[in-house]
Task: inverse folding
């Protein structure tokens, strides 16, 4: 049976959290908003707009300024992304992708990011992917299951044949909601709801994935 392995990007394939942090910190300083690493942890897997709302902590901002802040943060983030390369692929991930292909399974991306394609190209991993769903593909962000369902559709596979790999609480929730088997990357208190959990993506064993979907 052909399985579809659907990967989140940030925190699973590469660790862009530090770049997001630097960009939000830059914006927060400019706007006179308080922000630190603890707040940044809450932004894992969260859409750009929702991230800004979390940083604003309920204080009001005009729609026009919200849009400008999102654009400016992204422009800053993109300058940081210019520097990424194959060296920023998390350990073991490329071998994992190769192993999945050798089994004849399919691979798709399901990321909240609108920079996902650019990042996969910079990492020189784009050719591994049969499908790519990103921040442009669906309206409702994670924890809604939409981006994962979109990704399964791109692979032409039913959700029951797909396995999601996620590092964010919102992402695990979304995958479970979509009826998919879920692999959590990170600590128990973050991704403990997943069917199986590893500390790092490089530790994922293909036989474990196979046994999540027997038959
Ligand atoms: C997710 C990140 O993958 O994408 C979030 O974990 C980020 O931190 C979100 O906010 C949206 O990304 P972007 O690149 O479109 O701002
Ligand atoms: Mg992530």
Result:
């Amino acid at each position: 049976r052909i399985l579809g392995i659907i990967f989140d990007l940030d925190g699973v394939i590469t660790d862009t959290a530090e770049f997001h942090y630097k960009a939000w910190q830059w914006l927060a300083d400019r706007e006179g908003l308080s922000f630190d690493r603890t707040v940044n942890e809450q932004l894992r897997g969260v859409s750009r707009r929702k991230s800004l709302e979390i940083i604003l902590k309920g204080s009001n901002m005009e729609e026009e300024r919200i849009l400008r802040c999102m654009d400016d943060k992204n422009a800053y983030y993109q300058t940081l992304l210019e520097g990424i390369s194959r060296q920023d692929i998390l350990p073991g991930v490329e071998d994992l992708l190769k192993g999945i292909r050798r089994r004849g399974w399919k691979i798709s991306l399901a990321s909240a990011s609108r920079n996902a394609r650019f990042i996969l190209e910079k990492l020189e991993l784009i050719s591994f992917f049969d499908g790519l769903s990103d921040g442009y593909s669906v309206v409702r962000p994670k924890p809604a299951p939409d981006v994962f369902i979109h990704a399964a559709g791109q692979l032409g596979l039913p959700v029951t044949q797909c396995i999601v790999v996620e590092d964010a609480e919102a992402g695990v929730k979304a995958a479970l909601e979509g009826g998919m088997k879920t692999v959590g990357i990170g600590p128990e208190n973050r991704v403990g709801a997943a069917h199986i959990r590893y500390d790092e993506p490089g530790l994922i064993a293909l036989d474990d994935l196979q046994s999540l979907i027997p038959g």
